[in-house]
Amino acid sequence: MIPKNEIDRCRDDIVYFAERYYYLKPGVTIKLYPYQKEILRECTAKDKKGSYIHKTSILSMPRQNGKSEMSTILGLHALFHGGYGHEILSVGIGGEQTAKVIFNKARRAIENCPALYDSIGDKNFKLGTITVPALDSTWEIKPSLYLSSI
Fold it and tell me: Is the Cβ–Cβ distance between 10 and 18 less than 8 Å?
């Protein structure tokens, strides 16, 4: 069980959450570059009332700069620390492959982190969807084709 003060700190600081709970493999958490920390903090910045300043974030960067990792961290942070009953949608602009990459990175990070895995278990991973039953929160990861059907 994660202590409440730790949960609060993770909720308030996405970089703290990522560097302690985003596991690349068992026992190895991510080490973010300064530009990644800046992007993540800007994407999750809140106003004085506690509402997100940016309701939508778009990452446009050259290849191999950590877009998928940052997208996964943003999704996991929203899933676990966005509050009760949240529905999060991520769209992989690269199509089906990008959506699968983000889903697989999220699943791997959760499975490698006992604190996160205990909240989900095996039953709450469905293709492109991750659910945290205790929070009644769901994260859907869709390919860009999804946008044309809305």
Answer: no
